[in-house]
Every structure is written in structure tokens, then in C-alpha cells.
Amino acid sequence: MLSSRLVQFRSMCLPVVLCSRxxxxxxxxxxxxxxxxxxLYDVVVCGGGMVGTAMAAALGHEPMFEGKRVLLLEAGPKQxxxxxxxxxxxxxxxxxxxxxxxxxxSFGAWENILNARCQEVKRMQIxxxxxxxxxxxxxxxLENLAYVAENNVILAGILKQLDAAGDRVHVKYGxxxxxxxxxxxxxxxxxxxxxxxxQLESGEEIRAKLMIGADGFKSMLRSAANIxxxxxxxxxxxxxxxxxxxxxxxxxxxxxxxxxxxxxxLLPLSNExxxxxxxxxxxxSKHLMMLPAESFVDAVNHAFWSDEHKNSAAQYTNRLFDGxxxxxxxxxxxxxxxxxxxxxxxKGSRAMFPLSLSHATQYVRSRVALVGDAAxxxxxxxxQGVNLGFGDVALLRDLLVSVVYEGKDxxxxxxxxxxxxxxxxxxxxxxxxxxxxxxxxxxxxxxxxLLRSLGLQATNALRPLKEKMIQFAAN
Length: 475
Ligand SMILES: Cc1cc2nc3c(=O)[nH]c(=O)nc-3n(C[C@H](O)[C@H](O)[C@H](O)COP(=O)(O)OP(=O)(O)OC[C@H]3O[C@@H](n4cnc5c(N)ncnc54)[C@H](O)[C@@H]3O)c2cc1C
Ligand SMILES: *[C@@H]1O[C@H](CO)[C@@H](O)[C@H](O)[C@H]1NC(C)=O
Fold this sequence. Notes:
By secondary structure, the protein is α+β, with helices and mostly antiparallel strands. It has a single domain (40-473), classed as FAD/NAD(P)-binding domain. The chain has 13 helices and 23 strands. The protein has helices at residues 2-8, 50-60, 98-106, 109-116, 151-164, 220-224, 282-290, 293-305, 313-328, 385-405, 413-441, 447-453, 458-474; strands at 12-13, 26-28, 31-33, 39-46, 70-74, 93-96, 119-121, 123-128, 134-138, 146-150, 169-173, 177-181, 196-200, 205-213, 229-245, 253-259, 262-268, 273-280, 342-345, 351-360, 364-365, 368-370, 376-377. Strands 1, 8, 9, 15, 16, 17, 18, 19, 20 and 23 form a 10-stranded mixed sheet that branches. Strands 4, 5, 11, 12, 13, 14, 21 and 22 form an 8-stranded mixed sheet that branches. Strands 6-10-7 form a 3-stranded antiparallel sheet. Helix 1 packs across helix 11 (413-441), helix 3 packs across helix 10 (385-405) and helix 10 runs antiparallel to helix 11 (413-441). The radius of gyration is 23 Å and the shape is elongated. The structure holds flavin-adenine dinucleotide and 2-acetamido-2-deoxy-beta-D-glucopyranose (NAG). Residues 88, 90-91, 348-349, 351 line the site of 2-acetamido-2-deoxy-beta-D-glucopyranose (NAG).
């Protein structure tokens, strides 16, 4: 039912780009194979972002994978994690939920991140510019709300563990994938089409029993596997920046306010700094990017403090929020705290990027599996992008471990389909809910965005909230 909802959103189908086939390759019907007999790996992970690196490191630390050959390919250079962290915060951050923390902990990366730099979120306050409606979540009612960490810090923490896996994972940096040759059709019982094959820009070819695509939202492996994606555009832009507070505080609250033009959020980075994520119209974002530093700071403070949008919608939203609170069994709106005042924006930290949403209709093919943004890209505002990706990694790792335990083929479609089914059930529900609510609410926002971004088990919260919203829309 949810997948049919997804279709109702009149998503635009992206054109499917078939990978160019190299002339030297031998064509066998629709199937292609590598020219000679290049090196064979059990698993090749394509793309060394946070998700791909976590995939490789997780497999590298699995006792069941001892003796298996794992390779990670990344186009960019290796990040040096031995250098001391710059004093200035990076402007790209993620909030990590309990699931992400548990995956990272399973292969030792979590300690690295904790020891480097990250901030615990103990309280979350979400409120609406049009009303006094407010939701707060406290650490006491919800264990381990979330952690906020810079993307570079997360990646460095994972990389360190990848190195610790030693020879069990081979890594090639500066290795850009040029082309893939994948087993044709749904079966791969002929000798020619037995393995997946990747060709690098350098001309080198490598074969894999399983090729994992962690190559981001423009995934080349996804195109080569002929997997269509559904995508849609919010016509919204995310503006990020590192902001200094007027006064140091304990700073473990995440703030989000719904404005007419979109949600604005502050995530704590330290007792003096917050990361701003402001989702707004393209026009306003351009304006925000061009403002002098002081005016930009004023605009942020105004967005959190101004009363100008209060209106009669308050009644509706109040009802809505009350419904949510009652169903969640949470405290009411008595405990509103005032958001912090910003005094300064870090030079060079202001950046903007378009917000979009896309979903691969399938996550697997024979000898191919997609993880992370290659499979699904959500509203980055929600900050849950990487949490979903880490969820993919945890499930795929567990599945592959059991396949190896049973002595079966890691690239076999039968097993991979279990991964697809389980993950899509989770991801599609969350994407459809967020997008559906986004539309139903009529404004550009839903509290769900931050709920999920902070990794609450929002599936429970989503359903009653969605029902309320549907009632509201029907009335
Ligand atoms: C501008 C921007 C801002 C964002 N901000 C936030 C945020 O604030 N919070 C949040 O939670 N999420 C944010 N997101 C989303 C978040 O970055 C992603 O969900 C997350 O990075 C996905 O990780 P990934 O490893 O799946 O993909 P990616 O991070 O995209 O990594 C893909 C990797 O594959 C490599 N690669 C690609 N093609 C090839 C090739 N042909 N050969 C070899 N290697 C290749 C790339 O070099 C890259 O390292 C943002 C995304 C964007 C684009
Ligand atoms: C902020 O983001 C932009 C664009 O991604 C990047 O070029 C810049 O280096 C970032 N600055 C910091 C301090 O992270």
C-alpha cells in the first residue's frame, strides 16, 4: 500500500543511463565479461564515503569473513585521520541515531568518534512559528536521543578501523570506476557471466562475487545494473553554517522551528557552537548566502525568535501536536525553553545545497547490492541520510555473514533479495511518510523531519501523526 502511495506522488522517473560497453569486451548475447582473468574478490565495495567505508570496515572485522577477499574502491584521496582536528568545525554534520551508533560500535569506530569530537543531544525542542505548539523530548524519556558529529570526524573514525582490519580489506584510493560489466538477466549460471566485473580509469579490471554500490546518489553501479530511480525535488535549498553562541552553555539541545518557508534547525556541536541547517526557498537561500556576516546572524536569530507568523492555524496545529503528544505519552508544552542567541558565523562555513529525494526501485541484482545514497537519498534536512545508510550496512553485513556461514555464494540473488525486502520495507515507509506528511501539512514542514533526524523510533510516532494529518486534511 505504501509503495502504491509512493507512485501517487507522481514522481518523476529519471532516465536510465546504461553504462557504455567497452569495445574490447566480448558480447555474449546481452552478457559481457572481462577480457582476461583479472583478480577475483569476494566483495568489492565501490565508493568510500561514510557508508562504503563502514561497509568495508564492518566486513573486515567479521570473524566469518576471515579468509575472504574484500576490496574498497574510492575515487578520491585518502583522508588523513592522524592530523589533529582543525579548531573550526566542518559545516557538514550528521545526527547519529542509536542504530548508527550500534553499527559503528560493532567494529570499534564509535570510540574513535567519541574521543575525537561529537556532542550528545539530551533534549530536543520543536516548535511552530504559527502557533505556540511545541514538542519536547528529553533524555530521561528516551534513552540516548542522538549524537551530532561532523561528517569528516565520522569518516575518520571509520577509516581508522578500516586500517586496523589490516590485510583483510584491500583499499584503492584514487581509483575511479570507469565501467561495470555485470551478469546479464536474472541468472548467472554460464561461465561468461559468472562474476561482476569493474574496470577502473587506469584500465585495471577486477572481478567480484558481490559488487556493493556505495557510490552516492548518482551511483554509476546503479545505472550499470539498469536499476531505475524515482526522484522528486522539493524546490528547497539547505543552508548550513557553523554558528557561535552568545554565551557558552551546556548546549545539548537540538532546536527546530517551522517557518513558513521551511524548517530551521540548530544542532549542538560544543558548549559554544551549533551547526545550522536551514531549509528554505531558492530565493531566500541566495539572499542568505549573500548577506554580510552580521546580517546573516540577525536573520538566524530573527528566524528563531520572531512572532510575526502567529496566526489562526495555531488551533489546528495545536490539535495536531496534542494528538501526537497524547499518543506518544509524552509531556505537554509547559517546558518551553528559549533558544540560544547566535553572535557569530564562522568565516567560510556558510554553504548551500539543493534538497532532493530519490529512491532506487530495487536495491539488488545478481551480484549487485546498493547501500546508502546509491539506494536512497532523503531530504538532507532530516539528517537521516547517513543513518539509513548505516542501517543498510548493518543488515547487509549480517546477511552476508550468515550466507558465508552456510557456505553459500555471497553474490546470489536469492539471499540479496532478503536484504532488499527488509530494507525497502523500512526505507520506503519512512520516505513515504515524511514526504506524504510534508505534502499534507501544506506548509513545508513536519515535526517528523526532526524526530526522524534524531533517530527516534518515529515509526510509532509517524502512524498516529499521519492519521491525525489525514483527518485534518479531510475535515
Ligand atoms: C551537499 C550535501 C550536504 C549534505 N548535508 C547533510 C547533512 O548535513 N546531514 C546529513 O545527515 N546528511 C547530509 N547529506 C547527505 C549525506 O551526505 C549522505 O546521506 C551521505 O553522505 C551518504 O553517504 P554515502 O557514503 O552513501 O555516499 P557519498 O557520501 O556520496 O559517497 C560516495 C562515494 O563514492 C565515491 N564515488 C562516486 N563515484 C565513484 C566512481 N565512479 N568511482 C569511484 N568512487 C566513486 C565518491 O568519491 C564518494 O566518496 C548531504 C548531502 C549533500 C550532497
Ligand atoms: C563548507 O561547505 C562548502 C561546500 O560544501 C565547502 O567548500 C567548505 O570548505 C565548507 N567549510 C567548512 C568550514 O567546512
